[in-house]
Amino acid sequence: MTRKMRAAVIAGPGRLEIDEVAVAAPGRGQVLVRVEYCGVCGTDLHNTLDGWGVIGAIGGHEWSGRIAATGEEVTGLAEGELVVGGPPWCGVCEWCRIGRSSLCVADPIRTGTPGHSAIPNQGAFAEYLLARADTVHQVPEGLDARTAALSEPLAVALHGLTAAALPDPLAATRILVSGAGPLGLLVIAALAQRGAESVVVAEPTPPRRATALRAGAATALTPSELPDVPALPTQTSPDGFDVVFETSGAAVAISTGLGLLRPTGRLVLLGTGAMSVRLDAIRILLNELVVTGAYCYDDTGIDDALTLLASGRLPIEDLLTPDAVGLDGLLDAMNRLKIGEIPRKVLVRP
Ligand SMILES: [Zn+2]
Ligand SMILES: [Zn+2]
Fold it and tell me: Does 175 map to a domain?
């Protein structure tokens, strides 16, 4: 008889069904992982609430879990060992070969099969997950499963810092973080531990502004309290920024971020959402601005994130909600995350 597990299955825009689905047996080079925690990402909100996801798919890619079974030819991973997921990059395409694996042609989002697992469209909002053994990362001694579940989104934040080409030291750099959702908070916390002292955050909801200050921002403003974008592209704001991390994905936030850059400033796009935005090309040209995306992680991103989490230098309780939700509570949590009612990362405990 096939073993069954509970999973949150996308049933249509805004609809999740908790179904019983078959637990797959690990094949050659694969491991079966019993999911401990899985974070809810902005991508999961789009996939579930906005109808971006395939019907029948199981979301969730920010997972930690324990090895439940190993397939043939798996070495170095023992049953019960705590691991986190990494992306199934190919390692051989032109981008992987030059150390830019976030552009891998086999990346799950690019191929339309998200989930960081060995089965397309089957993520970790389920009791078990099948993963390629060479894509999982062992969690360092002393790091718990709950904190380890932050490694994937933290790796995204760290990649954003890489894309920003930040100077060292960082204390005098003028930085704006646009949006203080879970990703914005991780960017703020990572910047703070790198020595950024005057990070400004722009965020509409009061609880998220308060959390951003605790996570390391020096100033928390509503978007309307930001300096005005100068009307002419020849002018830059005297209160402008060297780097803007845009984590909200809102079109207006993206164009405001660009408009508030100082000459040579850099806009790093981390938030998904806006399908198309009008950017002031003359402003970019005259002020030699750089606009860059930051997608996924550095090649060493997941391990860098695990090391930083294990160092104990991040304010974990400001980044995570105190209690995880079960699969039954996932849809409600997604709806509350979308309107900014929950100021931290939500973890699911399937
Ligand atoms: Zn994510
Ligand atoms: Zn590749």
Answer: yes
**What pLDDT, on the 0 to 100 scale, is given for residue 342?**
87
β-strands 4-12, 15-22 pairing:
antiparallel
Per-residue pLDDT for 114 more than 70? no
Question: pLDDT for 26-40, tens place per residue?
Answer: 999 999 999 999 999
Residue 314 maps to a domain: no
Res. 119: pLDDT tops 70: yes
In angstroms, what is the span from residue 173 Cα to ligand 2's centroid?
34
Residue 145 token pair: 């499963």
Ligand 2 centroid from CA 92, angstroms: 5
For residue range 64-92, what is the model confidence (pLDDT) as tens digits? 999 999 999 999 999 999 999 988 888 99
Q: Where are the beta strands (DSSP E) in 121-240?
A: 128-132, 137-138, 175-178, 200-202, 219-221
Report yes or no on 306 lying in a domain.
no
116 within a domain of the structure (yes/no): yes
**CA 246 to each of CA 77, 169, 180: distance values in angstroms, whole numbers, following the listed order:** 38, 22, 10
Give ion ligand 1 contacts, CB < 5 A: 41
| Domain match, 283 and 174 both | yes
User: Ligand 2 mean position to 51 CA, how many Å?
Assistant: 28
Kind and range of the H or E element at 3? none
User: Does residue 169 share a domain with residue 111?
Assistant: no
**Is 72 found in the same domain as 13?**
yes
Same domain, yes or no: 163 and 278: yes
- Domain of 166, in residue numbers: 156-293
Residue 42, pLDDT score: 86
215: three-class secondary structure by DSSP = helix
CA pair distance 333, 350, nearest whole angstrom: 14
Give the pair of three-digit tokens for residue 332: 């409600």
The 3-state DSSP class for residue 224 equals helix
What ligand has the least distance to the C-alpha of 98? 2
User: Could you say which ligand is closest to the alpha carbon of residue 149?
Assistant: 1
